[in-house]
Amino acid sequence: MVSESHSIHNKSIALAESAQALSHTLSVDWRLLPYDIQTNRAHVAGLKRCGTLSAAIADSITQSLDRLMNDYRAGNLTHEGCSDEDVHSYVERRVIADIGDNGKRMHTGKSRNDQVMTDSRLYLKDHIQAIGSELQAVLRALGELAEQHTRTIFPGFTHFQPAQPIVFAHHVMAYMTMLQRDYDRLMQCYDRTDCCPLGAGAIAGTNYPIDREWVATQLGFSRVSTNSMDAVADRDFMIEFVSVSAIVMGHISRLCEEIVLWASPLIGFIHVGDAFTTGSSLMPQKRNPDIAELIRGKSARVLGHSVTMHHLVKALPLTYNRDLQEDKPPIYDTVDTVWQSLAALADMIPTITVQQAAIQAAVTVGHLAATELADYLVSKSIPFREAHEITGKIVNAAIKSNQTLQDIPLTEYRSFCQNIDQDVYEWLCLERAVNRKLVIGGTAFECIDAQVAQLKELIKW
Fold first, then answer.
1. Which residues are catalytic?
2. What does the alpha-carbon distance between residue 129 and residue 180 come to, in Å, rounded to a whole number?
3. Number of other residues whose CB lies within 10 A of the CB of residue 129
4. Domain 365-459 coded CATH 1.10.3720.10
């Protein structure tokens, strides 16, 4: 079957209904509506400025677009029941219905190819900024948490096994360092998105003497594209956005994994606020860290969108191909998912309370001071490889006798190595162990204070 629909394709034969179902995207790209109105408005202003449209006609079109924007902002518009092919044909139909045949002049000198890229860049610019703001909110929340625990000795892990003593703030600031890189990448992505393709036409540019740079400034772009073919074919900025987003989600999934683990009663390092946990339909004792788990899970779909975008453009010839219609769903879902995840995380972090007693108990498990003992032996002129072997034997003995390294008597230490003296116990003190790491980026109190000051200056919490 065939059915009528509003399209700006110059085609006399209507698409079959099955083809329309595959082809029409109005419900998907509806969120581009305000950006499409902006793009049309700037384009009409450019046509007026170069004399292609008379002032009267241009002003009439502009006023119609403004009325449409006002209706949108008032919540009076819907795509339900509309047969338009996409948001561009919807806007054009509404303008023509409003002012008559002069509305048909609005599309002079542009193609949907440069139009949709302009809309999409405007959309992403706004939403990159919004996501960046939420990322900053997460950084501030983490900064406040770190600043509260600059003297809390905490077990550092490798392979999720006790490794060395660190400071809790050091662990938190590791995530801050990751997320600050993410913010920098996001802003770099914004800079590359901030390029106006309007005026590139379908592929070759436009026959009308439009001042592209002036039009770009009307839309808030810092520059214009320099190759019309690339301008309509380029999806790099979208691929970069979903790729950066996948990195962001990967980083916060790691943080959420640790929140899930630490909140378990079996570990008990933290308590997460009730507003970010749920119960069970059967087990009344449960406090499930569902929000952290959801964020962890949503990282998978954003990574999937990154893969989708890379595959979408693989081996496509220049310039526009209809495959590229499929760029919108992964972009829109990535925007929604990343923003929602960061917003929830920023709200959840301030509800976290650190359980000092559980942490103090944990640092006595796993022989965190073993590396300190090896370095102590090095200070006694024993080569490190030998010191490492001796320490391993001492740790095995401690495990068998269910002792900590701090509990082993000096006589027993000296049975392993005659170079060990009473001062070994100073080396085994965890606070002293932490404060020996007095290097840039280390976990010593002095270094932690410097990291906090540096991040606070950068992030402003």
1. 159, 280
2. 15
3. 12
4. no
All CATH 1.20.200.10 domain ranges of the chain, comma separated, are 113-361
- Rounded to whole angstroms, the Cα distance separating 290 from 273 reads 12
Tell me if the pTM is above 0.90: yes
- Give per-residue pLDDT as tens, 235-248: 999 999 999 999 99
* Distance in angstroms between the alpha carbons of the first and the last residue of the chain: 61
Dihedral, 261, 266, 272, 275 alpha carbons, nearest 10:
100
pLDDT of residue 6: 58
* 130-149 per-position pLDDT tens digit: 999 999 999 999 999 999 99
Burial class (CB in 10 A: 0-12, 13-18, 19+), 364: middle
50 close to 208: Cβ distance less than 8 angstroms? yes
Calculate the dihedral angle through the C-alpha atoms of 446, 447, 452, 454, rounding to the nearest 10 degrees.
120
* Residue whose entry in the numeric block shows the structure tokens 């662990």: 171
Residue 178: pLDDT over 80: yes
Query: Do 14 and 30 touch, CB atoms closer than 8 A?
Result: no
- Where, residue-wise, is CATH 1.10.40.30 in the chain? 365-459
Cβ distance 88 to 31 under 8 Å?
Answer: no
Task: Return the amino acid letter for 282.
Answer: L
- Provide the token pair at 247: 């990195």
Give kind and range of the element (H or E) at residue 294. Answer: helix 290-313
Q: Where does 23-108 sit in CATH, by number?
A: 1.10.275.10
Instruction: Name the helix (H) or strand (E) containing 270.
Output: strand 270-271
Residue 345 per-residue DSSP state: H
Q: Which residues contact 420 (CB under 8 A, 6 or more apart)?
A: 376, 377, 380, 410, 413, 414
Q: Where in the chain is the domain with CATH 1.10.275.10?
A: 23-108
What architecture is domain 113-361? Up-down Bundle (1.20)
pLDDT digits (tens, 9 = 90+) for 3-41: 445 566 555 678 898 998 899 999 999 999 999 999 999
Q: Is the pLDDT of residue 437 over 60?
A: yes
CB-CB contact of 284 with 369 (8 Å)? no
Instruction: Take residue 99 and report the two structure tokens written for it.
Output: 């002012």
3-state helix, strand, coil in the chain (%, to 5): 65, 5, 30
> What distance lies between CA 309 and its chain's CA centroid?
16
Q: Which uninterrupted H or E stretch holds 451?
A: helix 445-459
CA–CA gap between residue 368 and residue 414 (Å, rounded): 20
